[in-house]
Recover the amino acids of this structure.
């Protein structure tokens, strides 16, 4: 079975725009980003900013065969984009701790989804 994960982390006050700028750069460096997904064994990664009365949060959706293997590969990565990503996350995230608590109810993929 495929692992599907949703995480949520608090963004430091005033750092949301830095995160948005980083997301633009990731989109511009999409070939490099996709290469890291392949190396990590990640099938999909999607990032959102959630705006709440308690501040802004970075929310990630990730899909992989083995999410623990993804985390391990990311930690050992030598890709420049991963190093840049890590530096931005240290700057913009309040603690880096996951503040969400989600129980997966179901996940469906359309088998006719084009590649």
């Amino acid at each position: 079975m495929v692992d599907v994960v949703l995480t949520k982390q608090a963004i430091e006050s005033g750092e949301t725009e830095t995160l948005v700028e980083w997301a633009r750069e990731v989109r511009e460096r999409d070939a490099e980003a996709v290469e890291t997904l392949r190396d990590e064994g990640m099938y999909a990664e999607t990032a959102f900013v959630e705006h709440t009365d308690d501040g802004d949060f970075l929310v990630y959706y990730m899909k992989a065969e083995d999410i623990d293997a993804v985390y391990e590969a990311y930690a050992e990565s030598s890709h420049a984009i991963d190093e840049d990503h890590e530096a931005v996350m240290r700057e913009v995230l309040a603690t880096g701790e996951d503040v969400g608590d989600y129980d997966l109810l179901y996940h469906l993929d359309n088998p006719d989804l084009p590649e």
